[in-house]
């Protein structure tokens, strides 16, 4: 597995330069790439008046095929996201799947 470049991940969230953020399942931070993709999407809609909206289904089907062929992500409940004060990634422990945690408890 490739090591995660946490500096690059954190750089996707500009507000984190000045703030510590706790995601409490409310309106959360968006990574820069999501904001940029949204801007491109809405600019395209403005240019085409949504005339190509049925193509979105083809795009979604293509994305589903890519995701289905991918290795599962090593994330889930208990995944570790490094923020100020947390140990560096190499010192962090792997997340424990919920089923394993329940069996141990």
Dominant shape: extended
Q: Which class do the helix and strand fractions yield?
A: mainly alpha
Tell me about the largest β-sheet.
none
- The ordered H/E elements are HHHH
Proportion of residues in β-strands: under 5%
In round numbers, the mean pLDDT is 74
Low-confidence runs: 75-93
Task: Supply the number of helical segments.
Answer: 4
Helix content: 40-55%
Using the CA coordinates, give the radius of gyration.
18 Å
Q: Total number of β-strand segments? A: 0
Distance between the termini: 29 Å
Notable traits:
105 residues; mainly alpha
Structural commentary:
The chain has a domain at 30-71. It is 43% helix and 0% strand. It has 4 helices and no strands. It is extended, with a radius of gyration of 18 Å.
Secondary structure blueprint with pairings:
Layout: H1 6-11, H2 32-48, H3 55-69, H4 98-104
Summarize the structure.
With 105 residues, the protein is mostly helical. The protein is built from 4 helices and no strands. It has helices at residues 6-11, 32-48, 55-69, 98-104.
